[in-house]
Amino acid sequence: MSQKIWNVYLSGEIHSDWRERIIDGARARGLAVQFSSAVTDHDASDLVGVNILGSEEDPFWRDRKASGINSIRTSTHINNADLVVVRFGPKYKQWNAAFDAGVAVARGKPVITLHDAEHDHALKEVDEAAKATCRHPEQVVDILAYLLS
Predict the structure, then answer these.
(1) Which label site among 17, 31, 34, 63 has the fewest CB atoms less than 10 Å from its CB?
(2) How many domains does the chain have?
């Protein structure tokens, strides 16, 4: 009998190596996991709408074009995920990550949040809806190893 391959969507902060640490950790442990993610090239993500659909002078409409296209990818990956990991980094407000967590929960997808203690209060409702809150990417790998054992 073949082993199920879990689909894990990695959402959130794009300025550190947390995704690589989870992916490398899962591979090192031989876990049957396939990862997907939002586009992590900030400029590519922000400019996808104008690059494909044409320029916009108004920043609102430039962002609207990009968010519409990016949401196709995000929605598809969340729908196909067995688990969603949402990282809130220390430097920027990640409203999109909070939205992804809410969408995942609304669709019945289990969520793991990943953030430093400094964000505990701001994320209390998001963390309450999550099945686990981790401080380090390696804890996510440990949870995956447990779930797949």
Answers:
(1) 17
(2) 1
60 domain residue, yes or no: no
Please give the backbone phi and psi of residue 21, each rounded to the nearest 5 degrees, phi first.
-65, -40
Which of 73, 82, 89 is CA-nearest to residue 122?
A: 89
Model confidence at 83: pLDDT above 60? yes
DSSP classification of residue 82: S
Is there a domain that residue 58 lies in? no
CA proximity to 89, closest of 11, 12, 34? 12
Pick the more confident residue, 21 or 90. 21
Domain that holds residue 141: 6-40+79-148
Tens-digit pLDDT profile for residues 115-132: 999 999 999 999 999 999
Q: What is the pLDDT of residues 13-51, one digit of tens each?
A: 999 999 999 999 999 999 999 999 989 998 999 999 999
CATH code: domain of residue 137 = 3.40.50.450
Rounded CA separation 63/78 (Å): 21
Identify the helix (H) or strand (E) that includes residue 72: helix 59-80
